[in-house]
Amino acid sequence: MRGVDRVGAGRIGRSWAATVADKQTVHANDRPGLVSRRALLRAGSLLGGTALVACTSSSQVTVPAEQNVDAPLRHPVPPAHTPTGVLAFFTEVEARTVEAVTARIIPGDARDPGAREAAVVTYIDAKLAEFKAFAEPTFLTPPFAEGYAGTPPPASVDAVPVPEDQLYRYGYQSGVTPQEAYRNGLPGLDRYARRRFGVPFVELTEADQDAVLDALDAVQQRSEGEQSEESGSTPAEEAGPARPEEAELDAVEADFGEVDPGEFFTMVRTDTIEGMFADPAYGGNRGLVGWNLVGYPGPQRAYSPEEMLVGARRQPQALDGLPAMNPDRRHQHGPEAVEQPRAGVRDG
Amino acid sequence: MTTVRRHSPVEIVTIGAGMTASILAARVLPETGHRMVSIEQGPAQWTYPDFAHNHDSLRYSQRFAMMQDLSKLSWTWRPNASAPALPMRQYGSFHPGQGLGGSLVHWTGLTWRFLPTDFKYRSHHVERYGADRIPAEMTVRDWPVDYAELEPYYDAFEYDIGVSGLAGNLGGRILPGGNPFEGPRQRPYPNPPMADSAFGKLFGQACSERDLHPFPTPSGLLSRGWTDPYGNVRAGCLYCGFCTRFGCEVGAKASPLTTWLPVALATDRYEVRTRCHVVRIDTATDGRATGVTYVDAQGGEHFQPAEVVIASAYSLENVRNLLLARSDKHPQGIGNDRGLVGRNYTYQLEQTPVKGLWENTRFNFFMGNGCTVPQIYDYNGDVFDHSDLDFVGGAALFAEAGQRDPVTSVGTLLEDLTDRQWGAEWKAMLGRSWDSVGGINTEGESPAYTGNFCDLDPTYTDAWGLPLLRITFDWMENERRMYRFLAARCVEIMRAMRPDRMAVQPELPPYRIDEYQSTHATGGAIMGTDPGNSVTNSYGQVWDTPNVFVTGAALFPQNPGANPSGTVGALAIRTAETLRDRYFSAPGELLT
């Protein structure tokens, strides 16, 4: 089952204020029309956005205070300040363990940076500190699900019994929040590491750390593997790291206690990917190392049809290098810019 | 005891301010003196300033900033009537939007007309293959409108939003490069097709080599600047790569914000109340609807009286609002006097049966949008002969388009291409191959069955204490056979694209609610020819409560192999013109 780590509540905060502080009032585009607009955009994106045309909103339109590019209406919004690494949720010990796990999920060194170099643990810590439950909207009304094998237990008001091999089809159903999953899962990880190798996770060799994570991954695959047998589809190839014995997987589950080790691993992996590849404003992807790894130039304003075929040379940039897009049409030249707020729409 | 604030009566109130509500407002209000109010659960949002700085994949694609707030309201699902139902607690299968403009703000833009045979589904199959071709439990039906009747409305919708495409059938004449299987159209598309991506070109060439008929995706994104019939001026697409799940910052992607809302709001007789949630369609003792009750963001309760109530929210919420409107006259809800609300719930078979890896090739997948690829219809609907096949139905096949971003793609990109989905080897392969892996997708039919339906959940309630809608749905044997056939065709095309490696999913996995497939939840309040086979007539007018109308994909008797927005829009224009020209001369009467 996936996705313990996704979803969220909102949070008040400004977003990209600093990035658009240099919003200009240039009336360069007096001629209406799309050609000049596109040309300017093109120029803007190539030259780093200095030539963007400013807003010329018409007189009868007033933009509500809360509704401007510096404070977008939609939540969740990015953090007001890029997390710096001062821990806000994890203890030092927890942070070291999480960092060690992320560094096995996306290993790296100075020449070929990975999760550690990208400061993924800073991203995860900030995310956990910011959202009491999830970062994405999540329906948390009970009852939650309880898996069973064999005879179904009687239904109760506290839990909905679901055949264990069907649980994966329903997505997140445990009711465990990410904060709880990390706080209770990390000791489980160390219990397992100690039982198998005698020392906590961070003290293991990289090979032994991989062996531990392989077991967690295998627990996750087991919960979905039963599914593919039932549906009659054959798993492609069963090559790769040999799956640990069933008894060993059961023991891993026992070490983790109330936290599902498979879900825990999936959560950390997803968070690692987010921290490696999300905008650096969220605290990870430091130096754009994630985007550089895969050859992604970050957010850009435009590509041409030709560039879609042959590629584009762009300086990779983060969101704070991307100028805000302003409307360039002016009321006197024709229909009022259709993009802006209008009377007749308001909170009831 | 809270007091309910009673508003001045209006002619029309709609639940939701998305595409169909704004079409009604733009088509009804300017030429009449009517007043209309839309109650919208989400916030106001405008191209500027709300989308001016929105290229944040984490926020929009991973944290769903534009989608309905699932923490307040979701849907439960179970695979069959004997399985337990649980809420979709986080976004998976579908992504309904909320806020001004609805899902047509964050959509991908594919704008189809259904095939002429789609509208005569049952009679066509019976006529061509015999009555025993359709399994007993398959409750597919003919639509109460046919293609010819709907064509002028498709045309109007396409010109309203400025669809970019290449006609394949102009008045019966088959044109090179377009979709030769489409129904005849009276005019070409208003704008030329979108540019092709590199991967799209490769797919198109492979299809042509195999004597298939690739054609450009009909796109609700503008390929060039466009002034629409209302006088709105919109810019062409910049291929920026932030489209699905984002609002368009230049207005190139069609949305109510840039097409119908400006016209409607300019009348001063249209009002949208945002952050307000409808909790009830109210009825009088004679069973007729009197208006809607809603709750504002501060918890204040309001009543908006109206002569006509329109269920114009997301399809599933329209079904739920009908079921929740229980009264002495309608003990099972509005439209449900014969127990048909919730029946014929269908979906969309959207899958990626095969993906390929081309070493040392970069396709620039991060550019473009969801429409920058060709499609083929050679295996859609009943375009191909099913005589020797063991299923009905088909799918459009298309190459993976653009708009790939790392944060949402790296998690699954290399599944079935490398053993471990983490670690040094995986990372190295990701670095080499992130822009070198692409798939072929199906946009497939979903027939209706007695076993797939929606009703009210007995356990879970929303933030306002009302029962959630419970979806009972799974793929059936017909779709597994259809998928097997389609997957084999996808593999043939993929081979012709000559990848270095290939990963195939030959069998259709069971439906699961936690994986995104498409937002095309259809049916549940279907239209038909009489109250014995449907909830509404062809205008979406509810048989048993004629001053309630339903718009949107809940009306579809079953779902063909195409995205629904084009047909939803055409039907809404038809309903709007009927409301404008005919309904109010005999209010409360069934339209014929």
Automatic annotation (TrEMBL), chain A:
Domain of life: Bacteria
Positions with biased composition (Basic and acidic residues): 327-336
GO molecular function: gluconate 2-dehydrogenase (acceptor) activity
EC number(s) per entry: 1.1.99.3
Enzyme class name: oxidoreductase
InterPro entries, A to Z: Gluconate_2DH_su3 (IPR027056)
Compositionally biased intervals (Low complexity): 230-242
Presence of keyword Oxidoreductase: yes
Protein name in the entry: Gluconate 2-dehydrogenase gamma chain
Species of origin: Micromonospora polyrhachis
Keywords: Oxidoreductase
Region described as Disordered: 220-247, 319-348
The keyword Oxidoreductase is assigned to this record: yes
Automatic annotation (TrEMBL), chain B:
Domain Glucose-methanol-choline oxidoreductase N-terminal: 235-346
PANTHER family referenced in this protein's UniProt entry, alphabetically: LONG-CHAIN-ALCOHOL OXIDASE
InterPro entries: FAD/NAD-bd_sf, GMC_OxRdtase_N, GMC_OxRtase_C
GO MF, one annotated term: flavin adenine dinucleotide binding
Domain named Glucose-methanol-choline oxidoreductase C-terminal: residues: 461-572
Family label: Belongs to the GMC oxidoreductase family.
This protein's record includes keyword Repeat: no
EC number: 1.1.99.3
Pfam families noted in UniProt: GMC_oxred_C (PF05199), GMC_oxred_N (PF00732)
Keywords annotated in UniProt: FAD, Flavoprotein, Oxidoreductase
Annotated source species: Micromonospora polyrhachis
Name of the protein in its database record: Gluconate 2-dehydrogenase alpha chain
